[in-house]
Write a structure and sequence with these properties.
Helices cover about 40% and strands about 20% of the residues. With about 260 residues, it is an alpha/beta fold. It has one domain: Vaccinia Virus protein VP39 (Rossmann fold). Helix 2 links the parallel strand 3 and strand 4.
């Protein structure tokens, strides 16, 4: 009887784990659909969606937004990269070929910072020029490249660290695409569970103020949400005031 009970307990625990994985996947799908509704206007050109023949690079892809984008806007190609792709990414890529024509969707395990791998991906995808769009969704805070900003003795694994953010990353992103679309949620008081060493940690309002001041002086920055505006020194104060009231932001950057 004890052996039977142990076997039953193991099966129940396995079922519980599988159910939790399914719930997490479902949450990813529903969140992605909600987020895309806040992002999609950033793809407009002169007020219209004209993605026919366009190529999109999705940095830190959740693999779901590319599917929604393909079904709704039918670009030519969407390439998603992530250091840790979701478990369903391979199946989604394969099965998407049946119903996302003419859009081709490809996913790769790669970091934006892995120049060798990124070069191979661009070669594989026959990208001679730039992508038309680079989507960076809930990933910008993971693109920290500075030294640790925290006042403590850094551990070897750096899990207690939080790198500074260098706005030069926008120049790197604009080398890959003509328009860089940023969608970011931020909860400064909460722990970033996806942090890799010191690359992670949600942006604070103070960090946003520094970032936006630099990039608005150097590039064309158009805000989609929480307010719609062309970002310049005059509008910066209004945007920062609004960011203190919300927990998400969407804007795009062009040279």
């Amino acid at each position: 009887m004890t052996c039977e009970n142990n076997g039953l307990t193991k099966r129940l625990l396995k079922c519980e784990e599988e159910l939790e994985d399914c719930n997490n996947d479902l949450q990813t799908w529903t969140n992605s659909l909600e987020e895309l509704s806040e992002i999609e206007d950033a793809f407009k050109t002169d007020g219209k969606f004209e993605l026919d023949g366009k190529a999109i690079l999705d940095v830190g892809t959740d693999c779901v937004k590319p599917l929604y984008i393909a079904l709704k806007f039918k670009p030519n190609k969407i390439v998603g990269i992530n250091e840790k792709l979701p478990s369903f990414s391979s199946n989604l890529e394969q099965e998407s070929r049946l119903f996302t024509k003419p859009t081709k969707i490809r996913f790769y395990n790669s970091s934006l910072f892995d120049d060798v791998m990124l070069g191979k991906i661009l070669e594989e995808e026959r990208m001679d020029g730039k992508f038309d769009f680079v989507l960076v969704s809930k990933t910008l805070h993971h693109l920290r490249k500075g030294k640790c900003d925290e006042e403590h003795e850094c551990r070897e694994d750096e899990k207690c660290c939080k790198y500074g953010f260098k706005t030069e990353i926008f120049e790197e992103l604009l080398e890959l695409g003509n328009r860089v679309i940023i969608y970011e949620t931020f909860f400064p008081q909460e722990k970033d569970e996806d942090k890799v060493r010191g690359r992670g940690g949600y942006f604070t309002t103070k960090e946003w103020e520094k970032i936006l001041a630099v990039i608005s002086d150097k590039y064309k920055v158009e805000f989609i949400t929480p307010i719609r505006c062309h970002l310049d020194n005059k509008e910066l104060e209004n945007v920062i005031a609004k960011l203190r009231q919300v927990d998400y932001v969407c804007f795009y950057v062009e040279k």
